[in-house]
Amino acid sequence: MKMSKRVEKLPPYLFVGISRKIAEKKASGEDVVSFAIGDPDVPTPPHIIDRLCEAARQPENHRYPESAGLPELRKSIAYWYQQRFGVSLDSDREVLPLLGSKEGIAHMAFCFVDPGDTVLVPDPGYPVYSVGTLLAGGHPYYMPLLDKNAFLPELDKIPTDVLRKTTLMWLNYPNNPTSAVADIDFFNRIVSFAQKNNIVVCHDGPYSEVAYDGYKPASFLQANDSKTVGVEFHSLSKSYNMTGWRIAMAVGNPTMIEALKRLKSNLDSGIPQAIQYAAIEALTGPQDCIDEHNALYQRRRDLVVDVLNKMGLEARPPQASLYVWARVPNGYTSMEFADDLLEKVNVVVTPGIGYGKHGEGYVRLSLTLNDASLVKGLSRLAEWRDSKNRFKPKV
Ligand SMILES: Cc1ncc(COP(=O)(O)O)c(C=O)c1O
Asked: What confidence tens digit (pLDDT) does each residue in 279-337 have?
C-alpha cells in the first residue's frame, strides 16, 4: 500500500519505546503512576454538565450544526474575552468556535502556508505547530526557547533569509512544556515584529486560566494592534476541565478567522450543539471552578517541586500551566532518565526531547493526576533518589 508522502513525512511518535514498556508493565499487573498527560482529573463542573444534558434532550440539537457555531456561543466567547481580558470582539467576524483547539491549530496552516513557505515554531513546543506546517508543505524554522531567555524566542536571532520566506509564527504562553509566561510588553514586540516582516501570528493560549499565586496571564489580543496581525486560540479543555467534550475557539483578525471558517466549512460540520450550549454555560455561568482548580494544582505543584528539588532535579514552581519542567540529573538524556524512572520505580514522566531538540535535558511532569496517585508517584520518586544515594560512590 502506498502512503502519501505527506503522511510519511510526519515525524515518528517519539515515545514508542516508553509506551510499549508501559503497556507491558500494565499487562503484567504492575501499577504504573503517570505524570505524562495534561488532562484534568477533576470532572467538568456539574452546572456545565446539567446544561449539556438538558440541550442533548432537545431534538433541535440532534441535527447538523452550523460550521460557524451558534450565534449565542460566539457572543458568549466575545463576552468572556471582554470580561477576562477587556478585549472587544465582533462575534460575527472575529470569533470562530472549534472542535478543540488542536484541529484549529493544524488547519490554520492550510490557510496561511503554501508549499515551500517557512513557519516559525517554538522549540520545545506543542508538536501540532510543526505537524500542521509539514502537512501543508511548509518548513518549520525552530525558535529555541532557552532558560537564559525566560523561554521566550530571540527574535533578532532569526536570520533575514528565513524571515523573507516566513508567512506564519506560532507562540504559546503560558507555555507547554516549559510553563513559561509572557507579558503584554512581549506581545507588543511580537506585533511590531510581525508588521515589519509581514508575518501572521497565531498565539495559542489554552493555559491562560491555569495560574498560581494570584498571577493572571495576559492575552495576545491585549497587545496594541494585535488584531491587525494575528489570532489567539483558546480552549475550554483546561479552563473548565472539558478536554473530552472538544470545544475551543479562534479569535482575532477577521481575515484569518474568515479563512479558517472557509476551510473548516469544507472539512467538518461544526460542533455538536449540546456541547455548544455547555460551552455557553461554562463561559457565562459561575467562574468559581477556575480558582478551585488552581488551588488544587497549586498544592500539587508545591509537592512536586519540593520532591524534585530534593532529588537534585532543578525545577522552579511554575506561575501558570499544568506542568513542571525539570532538568534531568547529570549523566542522563531526557529519554534515559524517563526510561530509568519507569524501569526502576514505575513512574512515567515525559522526556523533553519529545517537544524538540531544545527540550533535551528536561522532563515534563503534569499536575493532572489524582491526589492518591500523586502521593504514590512522589514517594516512588523519593525511592529512586534514595537508591541513587545508596549507590553513590564515596569521595
Ligand atoms: C499548547 C497546547 N495547545 C493546544 C492543545 C490542545 O487542546 P484542545 O485540543 O484540547 O483544545 C494542547 C493540549 O494539551 C496544548 O498543550
From this structure: 999 999 999 999 999 999 999 999 999 999 988 888 999 999 999 999 999 999 999 99
Whether the bond between 177 and the residue before it is cis, its omega within 30 degrees of 0, is yes
Amino acid at 11: P
Q: Closest ligand 1 atom to the C-alpha of 101? A: 11
pTM (2 d.p.)? 0.96
120: β partners? 141, 169
Ligand 1 pocket, CB under 6 A: 38, 100-102, 126, 172, 176, 204, 206, 235, 237, 243, 248
